[in-house]
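This week, look over our next protein:
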Amino acid sequence: MLVRDYLPTASKRLIVLSMDATIQDAARELAQPGIDLITVADASGILAGVVTDSDVVGWVAKHPNVVTNSSVQTLMSTKTTTCKAAQTLTEVAEMAQKKGLKHLPIVDDSGRAIGVIYVREALMALLHEAEVNEQWLKLYLSGGGDGRG
């Protein structure tokens, strides 16, 4: 299975903020159900960083007297791990596991974010695929799947 198979869902949860967005803007977007990561794009639309709900909470905890109209650039992660639509879910899951990530932005060839994939979804899809393959294999080995119809 490929990441592109999840683009319809992944693109629905994509939120892109500009570099001049505020921390309050980021918090407002992250408060939406099902949104755990937002992307930040530079003036040309290229992915510049990401912000997660834990980034916002951690920043506010460290800066309780600072107003949230500070730039989102002050807390966004700029060393962003991304994936591409042509990658397999297995590749994405392995990459995320190595880096301890829960979600990754999907980028196109120009570096623009086109979706956000949740690693849990990728793992669930891989598990489902493995279960289907196991059922097919059992059917085949029992003589019910020899292709003779």
User: Anything to note?
Assistant: The chain has one domain: 3-141. The chain has five helices and five strands. The mean pLDDT is 87.
